[in-house]
């Protein structure tokens, strides 16, 4: 069950990446897919895009519930339980280690791309600290507990950290 679910989620994620790549290419960006390169994989970067002499690093996430919740969820912490010892190891989620400039969340429910200016979000993290709500849940894809940083779309927009684009 788990392996087929993981394959399905991975396939959906790759489709979201292709959608973003096509969207950016259609708007004149040069898009280099670097998602399979080890350094970029570890730094959570899918694309390096260029236009008008500017270069940005992009990470793509698929969020099937974003339109419904109107919240952006950032992966904060993984809780991995060792089957042999029963000990739980805590690992940082991509919120802490991603080196991307922008996170683009694909929302198939409303056919929108939610582009978070991630570098600016991290630069303003202290002033936005009270905007984050922390939620734990079990991830069937990763087979572990996770803690997510949840922030309303409206808060990101008010702070100039979010742009929304229709991909239809």
Automatic annotation (TrEMBL):
This is PD-(D/E)XK nuclease superfamily protein. GO terms for molecular function: nucleic acid binding. It comes from Faecalibacterium wellingii. Gene3D superfamilies: 3.40.1350.10. InterPro entries: Restrct_endonuc-II-like (IPR011335), tRNA_endonuc-like_dom_sf (IPR011856).
